[in-house]
Fold DUF4199 domain-containing protein.
Amino acid sequence: MKFTRELTNGIIIFLGIGVYFIILELLGLSDEFLLRIFNVAFVIYGVNRTIKANQADGIRGYNTNLLSAIITSMIGAFLSIGTLLAYIKFKGGESYLKNLADNFIFGGGHLTIQQYCIGLLFEATAASLIVSFCLMQYWKDKVEVINRVD
């Protein structure tokens, strides 16, 4: 496991999500819940890059690769949520948050900025774990085939 790999791919996830949401904001579609779900594609891309590079370097341990995948996705999540926090404060704080929170998966209402970001952290953690486990299962089958051929 190379931390620079996880950091690099976490930053790629962060940049992909950031550009995606900027485009949604510019198009006036940032309040569309279904479009906001597609950010998982960037998580899949970054985590897959990490696992694929680990496999190419001969790192075959399931738990090692799983941890590497989770670290990669959580780096992207922390960077994205931190930047979103700064963006919300820049755009007007609680008044801007009301527009975002209405379409939030945990149900809108009167959330504070901190509650909103913590809720996003729970969502990001769940998505990170699911993506990491699914990709590990995919790569586990690939590695077994490669090992049988060798």
About this structure: The radius of gyration is 17 Å. Residues 3-145 form one domain. The chain has one domain: 3-145.
